[in-house]
């Protein structure tokens, strides 16, 4: 096989942020930790959006949600623009055979993604009940991938997108959304380290303890895939990427542009090419992943891509890497209109809201969870300030808004201007007023007879 054309496995989980042992969390994830030890881990990798489809769209196109058109959930009548191209299409042009395992959730029309082969059913919406999406559980998806690799029923180079359902919340019998502890098991809530950005309350601990059961399943699934690579002699010739789309499904995380909402795991292993056992604290956006992959396989990066390659950071040419000074994040539609744009630098986070919104937006699955119930009265009610500014050196949990303090006015004005300029340069429709939902035509359709 041409050394410039490694196999590529892109493994992605759901709603798990950086909740991993290798990111300093008190949880055992030995397979992911081993992958990180053999490759590179990115400590400050952020998604473009704190929600599934928009963030996944950015990962797959290298462009921000309002640029590629996927400003809401794929099952909510939002789609990529017709002319958008995604990673498997780029690598297909370079001679790759492309495969989809498990969920994808960037389009209702899987055919539009043009994979050579789709291996799993039900890979659109992760759903509210894991039982409905049995095929997308990590253990099942990993088993299919392992059998596929064992059978060698493919041509190299191979590209595989491998999507796990976990750690998405699921609707339970009492109507609340939890983590299906009856299937996955759970840890003892009393032994779980509380989240630093939430008060230490019973509901938060309960949900964290349950989520960890899903996290163990993710780690087990990745171990199955890594073992299959080893057993089939593919490890040395395969680029493995493990990531997720946004932060965990807890208040002040998923659905918010705070760091806990947009932080995302990113681990990459490519023996002999990516420097092993390295941790990078440079700012990285998930729009940067696609151009980096194309760079690694010697494919020209299109000018229209928003991201920038960080190949020079992770190879022996690291000294020539031009570090990012800022990353951008956004949210427009989820299960309600929540238009927010944000800019983050090494030290500061500036968040601009464009609608009447609650203090902290709680997506439905979080709102009706044990954890959500703990904060509804304090965070789930209006009003939120239209501008937020956080000095991350003094307030890393983004709990002290200094936007009106005199000594921060220069920072406020600079970041506000930079955010506006980015929105203007990228033709953000939010600058023209409220963004209509994807099903606006259906809303307007009102059969009636004139009198």
Task: Describe the model.
The chain is globular, with a radius of gyration of 21 Å. It contains 14 helices and 16 strands. Helix 5 packs parallel to helix 7 and helix 7 crosses helix 12. The strands form four sheets. An eight-stranded mixed sheet has the order 5-4-6-1-9-10-2-11, with helices on both faces. The chain has two domains: 7-320, Alkaline Phosphatase, subunit A, CATH 3.40.720.10; 327-431, Arylsulfatase, C-terminal domain, CATH 3.30.1120.10. Helices cover 29% and strands 16% of the residues.
Descriptive key words:
451 residues, alpha/beta, Alkaline Phosphatase, subunit A, Arylsulfatase, C-terminal domain, 2 domains, four-stranded antiparallel beta sheet, globular
Task: Write down the secondary-structure element order.
Answer: EHEEHHHEEHEEEHHEHEEEHHEEEHHEHH
**According to CATH, what is the class of the largest domain?**
Alpha Beta
How far is it from the N-terminal to the C-terminal residue, by CA? Answer: 73 Å
Any idea how many domains? 2
CATH topology of the largest domain: Alkaline Phosphatase, subunit A
Number of helices: 14
Mean pLDDT: 93
Q: Quickly give the CATH architecture of the largest domain.
A: 3-Layer(aba) Sandwich
Largest sheet descriptor = 8 strands, mixed
Q: What is the molecular shape? A: globular
Strand content of the residues, in percent? 15-25%
Give the low-pLDDT segments.
126-132
Strand order of the largest sheet: 5-4-6-1-9-10-2-11
